[in-house]
Protein backbone atom coordinates (compact mmCIF):
# COMPACT_ATOMS: atom_id res chain seq x y z
CA UNK A 1 0.00 0.00 0.00
CA UNK A 2 1.38 3.44 -0.85
CA UNK A 3 2.04 6.03 1.83
CA UNK A 4 2.40 9.78 1.57
CA UNK A 5 0.44 12.57 -0.08
CA UNK A 6 -1.85 10.21 -2.00
CA UNK A 7 -3.30 8.98 1.30
CA UNK A 8 -6.35 10.04 3.28
CA UNK A 9 -6.39 9.75 7.06
CA UNK A 10 -9.69 9.06 8.82
CA UNK A 11 -9.46 9.54 12.59
CA UNK A 12 -12.07 7.31 14.19
CA UNK A 13 -13.29 6.96 17.75
CA UNK A 14 -14.40 3.55 18.97
CA UNK A 15 -14.17 1.41 22.10
CA UNK A 16 -10.63 0.08 22.57
CA UNK A 17 -12.04 -3.45 22.74
CA UNK A 18 -13.18 -3.06 19.10
CA UNK A 19 -9.86 -1.87 17.63
CA UNK A 20 -8.57 -5.40 17.00
CA UNK A 21 -11.81 -6.34 15.27
CA UNK A 22 -11.64 -3.23 13.08
CA UNK A 23 -8.05 -4.12 12.15
CA UNK A 24 -9.19 -7.65 11.23
CA UNK A 25 -11.99 -6.29 9.02
CA UNK A 26 -9.73 -3.79 7.25
CA UNK A 27 -7.11 -6.48 6.56
CA UNK A 28 -9.82 -8.59 4.89
CA UNK A 29 -10.15 -5.83 2.26
CA UNK A 30 -6.61 -6.16 0.88
CA UNK A 31 -5.04 -2.81 0.11
CA UNK A 32 -8.02 -0.82 1.40
CA UNK A 33 -6.51 0.64 4.54
CA UNK A 34 -3.97 0.47 7.32
CA UNK A 35 -4.97 0.97 10.93
CA UNK A 36 -2.81 2.84 13.41
CA UNK A 37 -4.11 2.52 16.97
CA UNK A 38 -3.39 5.38 19.36
CA UNK A 39 -2.00 3.89 22.58
CA UNK A 40 -4.24 4.37 25.59
CA UNK A 41 -6.95 6.15 23.62
CA UNK A 42 -10.29 5.22 22.11
CA UNK A 43 -9.12 6.55 18.74
CA UNK A 44 -7.30 5.17 15.72
CA UNK A 45 -6.12 6.44 12.36
CA UNK A 46 -7.30 4.66 9.23
CA UNK A 47 -4.90 5.39 6.35
CA UNK A 48 -6.48 4.93 2.93
CA UNK A 49 -5.15 5.37 -0.62
CA UNK A 50 -6.97 8.39 -2.06
CA UNK A 51 -8.36 6.33 -4.96
CA UNK A 52 -10.17 4.07 -2.43
CA UNK A 53 -11.53 6.87 -0.23
CA UNK A 54 -15.19 6.32 -1.19
CA UNK A 55 -14.98 2.57 -0.52
CA UNK A 56 -13.31 3.08 2.88
CA UNK A 57 -15.76 5.81 3.86
CA UNK A 58 -18.71 3.56 3.01
CA UNK A 59 -17.23 0.70 5.05
CA UNK A 60 -16.59 2.91 8.09
CA UNK A 61 -20.13 4.25 7.87
CA UNK A 62 -21.52 0.71 7.65
CA UNK A 63 -19.58 -0.26 10.81
CA UNK A 64 -20.85 2.74 12.78
CA UNK A 65 -23.55 0.90 14.73
CA UNK A 66 -21.82 -2.50 14.90
CA UNK A 67 -18.61 -1.16 16.45
CA UNK A 68 -19.80 2.07 18.04
CA UNK A 69 -17.49 3.82 15.58
CA UNK A 70 -17.49 7.57 14.91
CA UNK A 71 -15.42 9.29 12.21
CA UNK A 72 -13.92 12.28 14.02
CA UNK A 73 -12.00 13.80 11.12
CA UNK A 74 -10.71 13.22 7.60
CA UNK A 75 -7.49 14.81 6.37
CA UNK A 76 -4.80 14.34 3.77
CA UNK A 77 -2.06 12.21 5.30
CA UNK A 78 1.16 14.19 5.80
CA UNK A 79 4.00 13.18 3.51
What do these coordinates show?
The protein has helices at 19-28, 53-62, 64-67, and strands spanning 7-13, 34-37, 43-49, 70-76. It has one domain: Alpha-Beta Plaits (2-Layer Sandwich). It contains three helices and four strands; from the N terminus they run βαββααβ. It is globular. The chain has a four-stranded antiparallel beta sheet, with helices on one face. The longest helix is centred in the N-terminal third of the chain and has 10 residues, at 19-28.
Provide a quick synopsis of the model:
It contains three helices and four strands, in the order E-H-E-E-H-H-E. It has helices at residues 19-28, 53-62, 64-67, and strands spanning 7-13, 34-37, 43-49, 70-76. Strand 2 and strand 3 (43-49) form a beta hairpin.
Compile the SSE list and pairings.
Elements: E1 7-13, H1 19-28, E2 34-37, E3 43-49, H2 53-62, H3 64-67, E4 70-76
Antiparallel strand pairs: 1-3, 1-4, 2-3
Mean pLDDT equals 89
Helix/strand order, N-terminal first: EHEEHHE
Task: Please give the largest β-sheet.
Answer: 4 strands, antiparallel
- The assigned CATH architecture is 2-Layer Sandwich
Cα radius of gyration in angstroms: 11 Å
The overall number of domains is 1
Give the CA-based shape.
Answer: globular
Query: Looking at CATH, which topology would you report?
Result: Alpha-Beta Plaits
* Record field, number of beta strands: 4
| Beta fraction | 25-35%
Characteristic terms for this protein:
single chain; alpha+beta; Alpha-Beta Plaits; 4 strands; 30% helix
Amino acid sequence: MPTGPDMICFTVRLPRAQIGYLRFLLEAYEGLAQLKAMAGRDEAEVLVPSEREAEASALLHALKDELGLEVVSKTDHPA
